[in-house]
C-alpha cells in the first residue's frame, strides 16, 4: 500500500479504488512490489483493450523512441501519424476518411463540436441523459451522468440541450415503448428548445459509459440517423469507451448498421498511451477553417502514434474483436446464471466485454450493495468499478484478451463477494 506521506503529495481531487502501486503488468494482471497478483477488470477504465504491456506494442514504442519522439504537426508531419491515419481508415466506414489527433477523449469531443459548428454554421448541440463526454468546460456542459463532474464549476457553456436516453430498465418499460417515448421527447425538444435548423449535432454514446453501461437500442440509433439526415444535423458518435473491439464490433455503432458523420475515439486506441482522434468525411473536414483548432501534441508524439498504429493491428490480427464477442457472451451467460440465484442483481446487459450488472433492492437502485460487492472483490484482488447516476452498477471492462478460464476465476471471486454482502446485510 502507498505510504501515507507519499499519498499526501498527490492532489485529493483524485479518488482511488485502491492505493495499490503496480510495478509490473501483463495481460489482465497487475503486480505489486510484493508480487501480489491483481485481476484488472477495469482496463484502466477501458484503455488496455490489448492487455497490459502487449509485447508488440512495447516493441513498437521502443523502436519508435529510438528514431523520432516528437514532430509537431504544424511544423512537420511524422510518418507514424500518416501510418495511423491509414490504419484507422481501414477500420472506419468508407466515407470516414479524414482524421484529427489529440490527447484525450474530452479534447476530441470538444474538437468534434467545433467541427460540427463550422461544418453546419449552426450552434446548438443535443446530448442524451446519462452522458459522459469529458471534464473540460465544454464537455462538462455536455455531461449528465452525475452532478459531481461539474460540481461548482458553473457557469458552463450554453447551447447544450439534453434529450432522454432509452434506458428501458430504469423506466421499467419494454424497449419499443422506451424508444418511442425518447423519440417523442426529442421531437418535443426540437419544438421547444433547439429547432432543427439551429442544431449542429446530436452527440451520443452508443453505449452509455459512466451513465450505467446502457446500450442504445439499434432502432433508436437508426432513428437518430434518419432524423439527422432529414434536418441536416450531424450525428456524432462518442466511441471513447465503446470503441476498438470493446463491444464485439470494432465500433459499437456497427451493431445498428449505421454510419455516423463524426466518430470520436480515445481510450482503447493507444493501449495506455495518451491519444484520441476525430474521424469524419472530406466534405465536413474541408469546412473546418485552418488554424481554428489544434494543439501542441496532437499528431506530434511519434511514439504515441506508433503505439496506436500497432494497437489497431493487434486488435485486427489477433482477433480480439471476435474474442470480445464470444467470450463476452460467455461472461453475460454466467452473470445471468448468478442473476437467477441472487435477486439483488436486477439487470445484466451489454455488448461484448462492456457489460453491466445493476443492483436493485425493493425496486430501487442499491448503491450500498454495489459498492460493498465491488470493495469485497478489490479486497480479494479483483479490480472492478461502479458507475451510473445512482452508483448501483458494477461494470465489467476486462482486457479483450481475457479467456473463459480467467472469467471463471473472476466470477468465483464475484460470487463470494455477493454472498458475503448478502449475509451481512
Describe the protein.
- By secondary structure, the chain is of the alpha/beta class.
- The chain folds into two domains: 4-53 and 319-424, Alpha-Beta Complex (Aspartate Aminotransferase, domain 1); 57-317, Type I PLP-dependent aspartate aminotransferase-like (Major domain) (Aspartate Aminotransferase, domain 2).
- It contains 14 helices and 16 strands.
- The protein has helices spanning 4-7, 43-46, 55-65, 79-89, 105-120, 137-141, 168-171, 175-192, 218-231, 282-285, 302-317, 320-341, 367-379, 404-424; strands spanning 22-26, 29-32, 37-40, 98-102, 124-128, 160-163, 199-204, 234-238, 262-265, 276-280, 345-351, 354-361, 364-365, 382-383, 385-387, 393-396.
- The strands form three sheets. The chain has a seven-stranded mixed beta sheet, sandwiched between helices.
- A hairpin with a 2-residue loop joins strand 1 (22-26) and strand 2.
- Helix 12 packs parallel to helix 14.
